[in-house]
UniProtKB/TrEMBL annotation:
Entry superkingdom: Bacteria
Organism: Roseibium aquae
Matching Pfam families: ABC_tran
Family matches, as PROSITE patterns: ABC_TRANSPORTER_1, ABC_TRANSPORTER_2
Record lineage: Bacteria, Pseudomonadati, Pseudomonadota, Alphaproteobacteria, Hyphomicrobiales
Function: Part of the ABC transporter complex PstSACB involved in phosphate import. Responsible for energy coupling to the transport system.
Protein's name in the database: Phosphate import ATP-binding protein PstB
Signal peptide per UniProt: none
Amino acid sequence: MKDPATMFDTPHSAIDERLSDTKIAAKKVQVFYGDTHAIKDVDINIQPRSVTAFIGPSGCGKSTFLRCLNRMNDTIDICRVEGEITIDGEDIYDPKVDPVQLRAKVGMVFQKPNPFPKSIYDNIAYGPRIHGLAKNKAELDEIVSSSLQKAGLWNEAKDRLDEPGTGLSGGQQQRLCIARAIAVNPEVILMDEPCSALDPIATAKVEELIDELRTNYTIVIVTHSMQQAARVSQRTAFFHLGILVEEGLTQDIFTNPQDKRTQDYITGRFG
Ligand SMILES: Nc1ncnc2c1ncn2[C@@H]1O[C@H](COP(=O)(O)OP(=O)(O)OP(=O)(O)O)[C@@H](O)[C@H]1O
């Protein structure tokens, strides 16, 4: 297995330069499922137009915290979120915020590809239709083709737009789900272990796509694979038992972690 610490070649100064702003700011975030305190006092600033990886052992709260960023936890009755999360300075938990609009701006891609039981075309067109993004069929066609192009699926899908999305391979389905998220003009894309159901070739394609997408989108990815975090992310956050132990440039986290728990995790001593 390739050591993540050997995978870096970008000078620090170049990365620091690019990552100087904040897109998402979380302050003192707590999440409870009933009496279970799943996220404890998490503070983090997430940089725009870059990939941030959340890593940590099973059950440490990565997915729970990710879901806070587009209020997906609102859909879980027993879940309670406290603290503050802003995107571009706006409090996303403000009662004035419409969660449906928020989830268009902050799209999500799940572990298992989950295309709708509809055609490839309609999978992409669904969001733009409900958000009124196209004035006519020609505009909708344009959104569908450009979303598939951005997701690297156009060549494989252009001759079968009327066929069911579920007829695509697993890797193609995941890129279809990414295209579906892109179609409603998101600024942030959250990915919860997007490659865990994919074979190595499909994984490599999705990772290449993530690398291309970071030019235009802020991406946050939960991954169990430290190699994947090292390959695709510029920053990495390590969670343990609901606490954000350490966050920083990915190459620092993998080559020079400040906390012993991070070091133990990245060297495979637990998790
Ligand atoms: N819907 C839920 N109801 C109750 N408890 C939950 C729910 N989802 C998560 N939890 C609990 O919250 C804690 C954090 O879980 P979470 O799924 O966020 O961790 P994770 O780091 O993403 O784990 P994994 O890597 O295994 O997916 C765990 O103790 C889990 O049991």
